[in-house]
Write a structure and sequence with these properties.
Organism (chain B): Desulfonema magnum
Strand order of the largest sheet of chain B: 1-4
Number of strands of chain B: 4
Distance between the termini of chain A: 56 Å
Shape of chain A: globular
Family (chain B): Belongs to the MinE family.
Protein name (chain B): Cell division topological specificity factor
Radius of gyration of chain B: 25 Å
Strand content of chain A: 15-25%
Largest interface: A-B, 26 and 18 residues
Oligomer: heterodimer
Structural class of chain A: alpha/beta
Distance between the termini of chain B: 70 Å
Order of helices and strands of chain A: HEHEHHHEEHEHEHEHHEHHH
InterPro entries (chain B): MinE, MinE_sf
Pfam families (chain B): MinE
Number of domains of chain A: 1
Radius of gyration of chain A: 19 Å
Largest sheet of chain A: 8 strands, mixed
Number of helices of chain A: 13
Structural class of chain B: alpha+beta
Helix content of chain B: 40-55%
Chain lengths: ~280, ~100
């Protein structure tokens, strides 16, 4: 990594926190995918793992063995920003600032993060922050530096309830969040056994920015550390790509509702008018 | 497809997602009515102070509660009045 690759000044970057309240709904996957997709659109992107003590974004992105410095080092001035930002192996313009594994979340303060956010904004077009689960210090730190928010929610009651709480906390900080519904199983929605995105928008009263279907490729991608958006025929990857395009200015790109994948008999049934 | 078909024939039972949605709506309403102890304590203090301007009250017996029933919540205040307060009403522009 040469100095020139990271050093660039006076960009007016957007800082977006990716949060959910509940754990295990896909924040880290979403951060990795959106970061990669926006970088592929030619923007300069840094993704930051804010889950201090439990870092994961690095393994999901396949950059775990390149870590030398981390977010705590960068914020505390133990290293330069460009030393902490690891360049992605496959995608130009994509950088990762990993979490520290040995500290705890109390080591950083919201005030320090605001200052660090200002620094990041000058050097990147997009700053995506992977917020830890919960609404404690890790959340406070992530939100302090952000001016936009994406809330990830799966169509389950626990996730929706936590999302509602987080949305309230974001509003209290004058941030209007946008919703991504993740892990939609179209077949279940169709049967009436899973909340539809319309139900969720109705309950949460929040603007939608994307719908992501359940996709085995997500696990495969994290197994190999190859970005989901580079996998061919990943339905989730494509959905995240469209969200990235929306974030990157194509605000009128229509939101596609995931459809049940057509099976042979189902297609015949639909033709005959038996299908729902 | 066939499960859809059979359900149509059998007559519809309630979709589980509708149960989920209804439960969520109620849960979220209740969540928002939950008041933190700090808020409740300062409300307690403020109300007691205001009433004390007008009445002698038994501050130890003063009780403040939020009661919930299915469709509404009520703030319930219960305090014994020991007697009227014999002093001038505080001026509107006086501090405090």
């Amino acid at each position: 990594m040469t100095n020139d690759e990271v050093e660039r000044c006076n960009l007016e970057g957007r800082t977006i926190v990716i949060t959910s309240g509940k754990g295990g709904v896909g924040k880290t996957t979403a951060t990795a995918c959106l970061g990669a997709a926006i970088a592929l659109e030619g923007k300069r992107v840094v993704v930051i793992d804010m889950d201090i003590g439990l870092r994961n974004l690095d393994v999901v992105m396949g950059l775990e063995n390149r870590i030398i410095f981390n977010i705590v080092d960068a914020v505390k001035g133990k290293c330069k920003l460009k030393q902490a930002a690891i360049k992605d192996r496959r995608i130009d313009n994509l950088f990762l600032i990993p979490a520290s594994q040995s500290d705890n979340k109390g080591v950083l303060t919201p005030k320090e993060m605001v200052q660090f956010g200002e620094e990041l904004r000058k050097q990147f077009d997009f700053v995506l922050m992977d917020c830890p689960a919960g609404i404690e210090r890790g959340f406070e730190n992530s939100v302090a530096a952000a001016d936009e928010a994406i809330v990830i929610c799966t169509p389950e009651v626990a996730s929706v309830r936590d999302a509602d709480r987080v949305i309230g906390l974001l509003y209290a900080r004058s941030i209007t969040p946008k919703l991504v519904v993740n892990r939609i199983v179209p077949e279940m929605v169709k049967r009436g056994d899973m909340l539809s995105h319309l139900d969720m928008v109705d309950v949460l009263s929040v603007e939608l920015i994307g719908l992501v279907p359940m996709d085995d490729q997500v696990v495969i991608s994290s197994n190999t550390g190859i970005p989901l958006v580079l996998q061919k025929r990943s339905r989730a990857g494509e959905a995240f790509q469209r969200i990235a395009m929306r974030l990157n200015g194509m605000t009128d790109l229509p939101i596609e509702v995931p459809q049940a994948q057509g099976h042979f008999w189902k297609k015949i049934g639909n033709k005959l008018g038996i299908g729902k | 497809m066939f499960s859809d078909f059979f359900r149509k024939v059998r007559g519809n039972k309630t979709d589980s997602k509708d149960v989920a949605k209804q439960r969520l709506k109620f849960a979220l309403i209740y969540d928002k009515l939950e008041v933190s102890d700090d808020t409740l304590n300062s409300l307690h203090r403020d109300i007691m102070e205001v009433i004390s301007h007008y009445f002698e009250i038994d501050q130890k017996a003063f009780k403040l509660d939020i009661r919930r029933s299915d469709d509404l919540s009520a703030l319930v205040i219960n305090t014994p009045i020991l007697g009227p307060k014999h002093r001038e009403r505080p001026q509107a522009d006086s501090p405090g």
